[in-house]
């Protein structure tokens, strides 16, 4: 039998189109649970200015030639592929100390986040390269000079500097909105768990799905990279507030006003409502949630509950319940079947957590767990970075500053007592800004007061009660559609948040000009831009239809019989339509008026074409407004204009937005809205395979 030791693999960076190893031996990375060498990491010899330029010059033009839908589609294909390879990532994740449930959040949670962004990009963004925002702003009385806000991709790259606790999710939740925006990414994972990030990026690069240069990787230090960032780049950072502030004040970032987003230390709080006494579902849910947040990822989550704020009358029962639950947490090797909590990321991290617990003890006492005595069900407590959960209690939390200033980034939380809800709110605020807070109550007044009291200090507030017990994603779960960030100590940034996250990597610009030129820039028809009348636009497929195609309909006069028939047929006998005296007493009307929805219905009757054709369905209206009352004898006419064309990928149809303007005989606009239809790309439709 050979006694040759297995050599740790050498991590490489993916830069300027190839995999590159550092020129020095670098740092040896150890398995968090066994202490065995896993990998070596070093980035010496990389030209970081060239890395930035490669992204700007090679990848950016390719990405920005695509539409939002095309970029989002790439992420869908990538996410589906990575999901088929997940077991390889789970195996590698064991080295980080994470159990399978912990790794699920990181791996499948990260891939799922990317897929969610892909879906939102295809559903909520137009299939264009320019994004309009808000309504047209009239800048002249005659409508010849207008303003419109647009968003376009930054012309640089985004540098994403990530933390060690989520080597997959932390990367994917950042690159997804960045790539949809059309901006290339450079990922710099924390060294301790970079081997897992590197493995996934290898699989991404091998797939060939992303354009070359759209994703680069730095394994090791970023060296002098930040010296070369410009006003068109963006930098995001997840980690300690100390390092984040140092990066935020980097001379190049300050001089160029480079976009910088930080997600840092966060002393998140959870409040138990006064109504949530022992025996209520809310009390039980609170105990379960606190224990879960303490032990999930061994407490190494930026969203973990660090401060447990509870009514003084419930403190003893709460501590007893938590002590009992935490004592049943089996700590050991992450791959062992009996393990419920794995190891911290490294032995150095365990030393740091123990030091932080000593600081916390200046204002609190340990009531459960012993940081110096490690009990494991498997593994070596000396070689592995194991630590049993530790719970502290502060009887006088307003006098104990350390519990509001010091974060032990591990399975550690501090219970603190409050005497009324105002005190609970004040304690939550002493975190000086956090990513998330939660409130467990079944009392609406408590929920309202607590949420409004803490909201300004938090990026997210979760309300837990019996109604959401089965459906809630929990206190500590960031979600793609909601912002992940917080004010103050938490860094002042916002990540994700759905399409808000995409916009962070785009420049908002106010453009001014004539309707014709604004329409050309935005790809949307604007009042005053050219229009084209001829064949009924509902007879045109997307291959034939163009922006500005317009129909001006025949006219229809509204009669008393129309209104009364509509009222009785629909059941809408509101007095303004049926009672002349009551209508005259209304300050908005001179006489009985036609129903608004009668106007919209008659308008549809005027502009639709009866024959089967390219228009497949009407799926809604946007911004419907009734502007001028319609009386008996008024004559209506409709002008319908193709406003925006949005072809769907991998489909036989697309979406068309029509500007619908209904006028009376005096040319007053009585109703205005957008009609939304599904239109075939070609007509007749191709036969569907059997």
Description:
Residues 19-496 form the Aldehyde dehydrogenase domain. Pfam families: Aldedh (PF00171), MaoC_dehydratas (PF01575). Residues 547-657 form the MaoC-like domain. With 690 residues, this protein is an alpha/beta fold. Helix content is 32%, strand content 24%. The chain contains 20 helices and 28 strands. The strands form seven sheets. The chain has a seven-stranded mixed β-sheet with strand order 15-16-17-14-13-18-19, with helices on both faces. It has a six-stranded mixed β-sheet with strand order 23-24-26-27-28-25, covered by helices on one side. A five-stranded parallel β-sheet has the order 10-9-8-11-12, with helices on both faces. α3 (86-93) packs across α4 (100-124) and α9 packs across α10 (315-327). The longest helix has 25 residues, at 100-124. The chain is globular.
